[in-house]
Amino acid sequence: MSDQATVSTYTDPQANKYTFLQAPEGASLSNRDYTAKTYGARTQCELISTKCKLQNNASIVTYNCSSDFAGSFTQSGLKTAFFTNDSMAEDMSQSMYNKGVGNPYYFAAADIMSLAGGDAPNSTEFVKSLHGPYAFILGCNTTIYDIEYDRVNNSITRFVPTISNTSASNVWQTSISHLNNWYPTIEQTAGAAILSGSAQVFVDKIAEAFSKVTIALGADAVDARPALAAQDRESFLVARLPKAPLITLVAVCFLYVLCGLIFAVLAMVAVRHKIPDIQARMSLAGVVADRFGDSSSWNKNTTVDEMFEEYSGKSEKRVAIESPDLQGAPRFTTWTVESTVVH
Predict the structure, then answer these.
(1) Is the same domain home to 189 and 311?
(2) Any idea which UniProt keywords this protein has (predicted)?
(3) Which residue from 225, 176, 164, 233 is spatially nearest to 4, judged by alpha carbons?
(4) What is the spatial distance between Cα 125 and Cα 184, in angstroms, rounded to a whole number?
(5) Contact 211, 41 (CB under 8 A)
């Protein structure tokens, strides 16, 4: 409606529709949750054409709801009257001293309209004139509410309406009852709703339109106030993965790691005795024993010390370097000496 407030609609779990003022939609509120108080309205209407004796009278359509709301339709155009109660005994909108009424306040609306070849809902509450247009009369009441609501993640999560006192309700009642610049809104709504084929849909659409008009007209009488509580939300971009594939992937990775650990342990167990033996055989003593010892008596359990022949009672060998002649190159050789077996 403006940069200060807009008229919104809320439907409660009991299918009751309320219109209320709230902060306008915008980027500044898209990430903000808040609790606030405001004003709202709920309008209820019913067709009272039969009760008002709406009927064809020669070339015109007449009605007589009460002494203050009676007349005839000579041309299309919305007719309204506001009353202190549902008896429609006193039209408050005709008095310049209208100081307001109670909460709810009552009013009637009547119109005759051409449907351009369409048909009105199948109800005796719609009277077709001799010239073709359909006439109807609505009896309505509007209740003004003090509303406290929570708006979380751009949705209304809590909505608590409390009937306003008459000081507040009269602001809205006097605003709509002394103006008629809102007539086109109701006429357009009625023109579209009458083609719905349902009398109840027709009534509900017009009642909602009256609530919106009422709240919009009275909005100038209220000031903006800070929210009771507010908090800002921050959004993070995260990846969304289906649960089943993710769980499967984690389980397979876990099994892969577990199998790796098991195989590593098995490998260490399998070679725990071989590695020290290999290291010993690659030492200087192991190389000497391998090159100059007798390997015919060795087996896989033979240690490096046992590779030397003196441990088996054979002649003890000594590694030496000799030169076959003065001109020859020195070379390794072994000398055999008698030895005693070491126990």
Answers:
(1) no
(2) Membrane, Transmembrane, Transmembrane helix
(3) 225
(4) 22
(5) yes
- Phi and psi torsions of 329, nearest 5°: -80, 140
User: Contact at 8 Å (CB) between 137 and 52?
Assistant: yes
The token pair at 27 is: 């980027």
Q: Are residues 343 and 264 in the same domain?
A: no
Query: Tokens 């909602």 identify what position?
Result: 208
Query: For residue 302, which phi and psi values (nearest 5 degrees)?
Result: -75, 130
DSSP state of 225: -
| Domain residue limits at 261 | 239-272
| Same domain? 86 vs 182 | yes
Return the structure tokens found at 29. 């509120």
Strand partners, 147: 38, 161
Contact between 191 and 233 under an 8 Å Cβ cutoff? The reply is: no
Number of domains in the chain: 3
**Residue 187 and residue 210 in one domain:** yes
Amino acid at 93: S
- My answer on whether 91 and 45 are in the same domain is yes
Residues of the chain whose pLDDT is less than 70? 1-4, 26-28, 93-100, 117, 271-281, 284-286, 289-319, 324-328, 335-343
Q: What are the tens digits of pLDDT across the range 200-250? A: 999 999 999 999 999 998 888 888 788 888 888 777 777 777 889 889 999
CB 47 within 8 A of CB 31: no
- The SS3 of residue 127 is strand
Do residues 175 and 152 lie in contact, with contact meaning Cβ atoms separated by under 8 Å?
Answer: no
* Identity of the amino acid at 233: R
